[in-house]
Amino acid sequence: MLAAAPVIYMLMTDRFADGDKTNNAGVDRKNPGAYHGGDFRGLREKMPYLAELGVDMVWISPILDNVEQPVPGKGFDHYGMHGYWTKDFERLEEHFGDEKELSAMVSAAHAHKIGVLVDVVLNHAGYGSPWEARADWTRSPKRGDCGPAEDDVTRCLYGLPDFRTEKPEVAEYLVRTQLGWAKKSGCDGFRVDAVKHMDHGILRRLHAAAPKGFRLLGEVWGTRATNEYGDLWPEMDWMFDFEFADEAFNFVTGISDAKRLDEYLKERAPRAARYVHYLDTHDVAGFLARVGGDKAAMKLAAALELSIPGMPLIYYGDEVARPTGDWPANRSDMPWDRAQDKEMLAHYRKWIAAHKRMSGPVETIEADGQRFAFRRGKVTVILNAGSKPWRGVAARTAEVF
Q1: Is position 212 within any domain?
Q2: Which helix (H) or strand (E) holds 109?
């Protein structure tokens, strides 16, 4: 295990980098719901960039074959470019590349000392996939056999065919096929989608069958490091802290003060080591958009994210001020070259490097208004969200010593 908590970088393969033009059938970059050409080869070619950024793990969107037909979006056709509408669990999505390209990408990551987490979907299949006709394996809104909305395990999310994960033969197939791809690719773990919408039996099976050292990051909407809710899923090695982004937003925008931030960090301290905290993901509105494009606020939030205990998650493009917003803008294409904000990139590199020097709990030095100073090990962090200089740090900036 790494001395410091790993820095995770989340990206959507289709939106990151196009390395192979031969798999671009149906690509339409003008349509925010269509495929945009990103693939395993493009990701492999960008590994030096991620290594220079300093991340330890990359979480990529689901890799398996998705349904071809679109569903209506906000005035556009929405395809399965995100990977969550699986059609075939035994084939890779052809837009992303073949098995050779997948393995080469993982090998390139490992050569740069970066681990790979693959997003996996175990609780549902795609709209109109062959699984929808399998009443013995799935529940379907079309048949009217979904469970009630209050039953997380048997309900059908967003009208998708829901796997009967409580059945051993269903659980065995889903775990076997997903771990089969893990073995073929050489990846280091899974980000497990929609964990609370599956029977615990399939989660125990997955945990037991996973190779030694293989990490499972579970998505249970609403978990946080400040309470016991995430403890209900011991099958997962890591969980998400869905609370952090709002706490960071409140501090850098002046809604709450440093005393509240200090209290929050103390509340989360006992569980922080198991939790992944973030400013952005593919499921929420972009943080930079939330703060009205205020890059000073974004930098302060990023400094906070990268200096507290737990595992920080960087969403692709945050480090270069990718323009975001609510869906579908939060899943826009990764900017490269001149389109990147190099000052923001330098800021992220600096704080990722600082993160690797930090250890131990937050030891508060001072919490005064919008100004917060603390120590972690031999490293001192000063966050000045106020309007005047403080402790030698300019207004609305952060510094590490």
Answers
A1: yes
A2: helix 99-111
Residue 384 domain flag: no
CA dihedral 269, 271, 272, 276 (to 10 degrees): -150
Q: Is the separation of the CB atoms in 385 and 396 below 8 Å?
A: yes
> Is residue 378 a part of any domain in this protein?
no
pTM: 0.97
pLDDT band of 1, cuts 50, 70, 90: very low
| Cβ proximity of 253 and 298 under 8 Å | no
Taking the C-alpha atoms of residue 91 and residue 93, their distance in angstroms, rounded to an integer, is 7
Residue 222 is part of a domain; what is its CATH number?
3.20.20.80
Contact by Cβ (8 Å): 223, 230: yes
Domain count, the chain: 1
Q: Which stretches within 186-327 are classed as H helix?
A: 200-209, 244-252, 258-268, 287-290, 295-305
Which pair of tokens denotes residue 324? 């975001």
Q: At what angle do helices 342-355 and 295-305 cross, to 10 degrees?
A: 20
Please compute Rg for the chain using Cα positions: 21
Would you say 190 and 230 are in contact if contact means Cβ atoms under 8 Å apart?
A: no
- Give the residue-averaged pLDDT of 144-166: 97
CA–CA dist 127, 333 (Å, integer): 25
Identify the three-state secondary structure at position 59. Answer: strand
In tens, the pLDDT along 187-219 reads 999 999 999 999 999 999 999 999 999 999 999
Spell out the alpha helix ranges (H) of 131-281.
168-185, 200-209, 244-252, 258-268
Whether 380 is in a domain gets the answer: no
**Which residues 6+ apart lie within 8 Å of 152 measured at CB?**
196, 197
Domain that holds residue 208: 8-359
Handedness of CA 150, 230, 201, 158 (dihedral sign): positive
